[in-house]
């Protein structure tokens, strides 16, 4: 068996009929002046206080960087963004309950320090260049590598936050179908969940800031996976994409080792990939929709709880209940790139795939509402109402007064 086949076999090991959702939500911890709380003397102390609720802990370079229990993990992103990863669930209300429990634990801890958690796609006040990385070698090496591959790696690592939803696939055919659908809808998801009104401490012109940032990090490992719409695309083609590209770093008994632009095929020539090495390789690529032993849909910004749960409900409707919106045949990677540009410039007034995006959104939401049960449909409502009014998450939240203090602070 070749290493490419081992990667494909590893991915195939995720085939399941469970049809669950996993949700990850990143947050900024900010001070009263909206500046980002650093890891040293800030995020580190918050984690220590949170640790009374979580029986398992992880350390790096002697510093606490993660907490775990049987419902969620709390981890720290490159510049101290706090992420909750919620265990796979079948029902959105269960995801919401776990998320609320985390917020109920975290918010008082931050409040007593004059801090708070905030859900935005980009940090509201800080400059990315001034943010320190947490003590994790992986992030230091990624930061080094991205300086040579694009213009926005520093911004991505230090100043962005997302909402990611993961879905199951039953077999290879189901996986490819879901990958293609999710990629085609990536520009729409980015528009609907746009929640990044600030860039480097100033009001941001245009829409879909995080999409623009990710598209300028590293073309070899971001965006749409090459060949996704080819007839022969499947687990092996994805495995080839991974194995023939640079992983940036590999993990050894002595820790992370920088491998730069050397592809995995050279690094592991003559050696059999282990399961842990395969898992690491898959984690070092960041396409809009990432494949591991599940499908990770990545374009949404970090959002307030009600919208994040609405987004989870929408993903469930499309990919779990199969309420897929009507999309033309024959679309591909170039169409997705054009759709991103169109929607970032024209927003809800734009047209993609031969139709007004508003019509596509209406069709998608109508199908979702018919497919979901009453409880999940209730969670979809805030996001659906905003999109039907032609408002992004930020625009809708601002109308409700959720971000009044932010606008005043900029």
TrEMBL record:
InterPro entries the record matches: GCL_bact_plant, GCS2, Gln_synth/guanido_kin_cat_dom
Root EC class: ligase
Enzymatic reactions: L-cysteine + L-glutamate + ATP = gamma-L-glutamyl-L-cysteine + ADP + phosphate + H(+)
EC numbers: 6.3.2.2
GO MF annotations in UniProt: ATP binding; glutamate-cysteine ligase activity
Gene3D superfamilies attached to this UniProt entry: 3.30.590.20
Superkingdom of origin organism: Bacteria
Keywords of this entry: ATP-binding, Ligase, Nucleotide-binding
Extent of the signal sequence: none
GO biological process: glutathione biosynthetic process
Family in the record: Belongs to the glutamate--cysteine ligase type 2 family. EgtA subfamily.
Function: Catalyzes the synthesis of gamma-glutamylcysteine (gamma-GC).
Name of this chain's protein: Glutamate--cysteine ligase
Source organism per UniProt: Candidatus Ornithomonoglobus merdipullorum
Organism phylogeny: Bacteria, Bacillati, Bacillota, Clostridia, Candidatus Ornithomonoglobus
């Amino acid at each position: 068996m070749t290493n490419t086949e081992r990667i494909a076999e590893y991915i195939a090991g995720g085939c399941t009929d469970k049809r669950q959702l996993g949700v990850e939500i990143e947050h900024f911890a900010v001070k009263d002046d909206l500046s980002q709380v650093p890891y040293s003397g800030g995020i580190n102390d918050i984690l220590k206080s949170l640790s009374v609720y979580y029986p398992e802990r992880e350390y790096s370079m002697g510093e606490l960087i993660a907490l775990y229990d049987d419902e969620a993990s709390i981890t720290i992103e490159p510049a101290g963004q706090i992420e909750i990863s919620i265990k796979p669930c079948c029902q959105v209300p269960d995801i919401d309950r776990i998320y609320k429990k985390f917020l109920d634990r975290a918010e008082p801890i931050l409040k007593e320090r004059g801090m708070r958690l905030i859900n935005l796609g980009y940090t509201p006040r800080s400059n990315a260049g001034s943010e320190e990385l947490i003590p994790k070698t992986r992030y230091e090496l990624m930061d080094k590598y991205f300086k040579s591959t694009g213009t926005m790696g520093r911004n991505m690592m230090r100043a962005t936050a997302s909402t990611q939803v993961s879905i199951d696939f039953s077999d290879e055919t189901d996986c490819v179908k879901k990958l293609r659908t999710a990629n085609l809808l990536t520009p729409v998801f980015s528009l609907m969940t746009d929640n990044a009104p600030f860039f480097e401490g100033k009001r941001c012109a245009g829409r879909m800031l995080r999409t623009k940032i990710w598209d300028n990090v590293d073309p070899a490992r971001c965006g749409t996976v090459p060949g996704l719409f080819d007839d022969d695309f499947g687990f092996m083609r994805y495995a080839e994409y991974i194995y023939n590209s640079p992983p940036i770093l590999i993990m050894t008994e002595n820790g992370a080792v920088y491998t730069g632009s050397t592809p995995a095929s050279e690094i592991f020539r003559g050696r059999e990939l282990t399961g842990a090495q395969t898992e690491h390789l898959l984690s070092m690529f960041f396409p809009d929709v990432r494949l591991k032993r599940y499908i990770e849909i990545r374009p949404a910004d970090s959002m307030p709880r009600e919208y994040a749960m609405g987004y989870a409900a929408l993903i469930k409707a499309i990919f779990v209940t199969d309420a897929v919106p009507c999309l033309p045949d024959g679309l591909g990677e170039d169409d997705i790139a054009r759709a991103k540009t169109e929607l970032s410039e024209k927003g809800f007034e734009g047209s993609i795939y031969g139709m007004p995006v508003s019509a596509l959104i209406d069709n998608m939401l109508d199908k979702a509402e018919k497919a979901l049960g009453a409880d999940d449909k209730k969670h979809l409502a805030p996001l659906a109402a905003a999109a039907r009014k032609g408002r992004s998450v930020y625009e809708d939240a601002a109308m409700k007064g959720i971000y009044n203090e932010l606008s005043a602070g900029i």
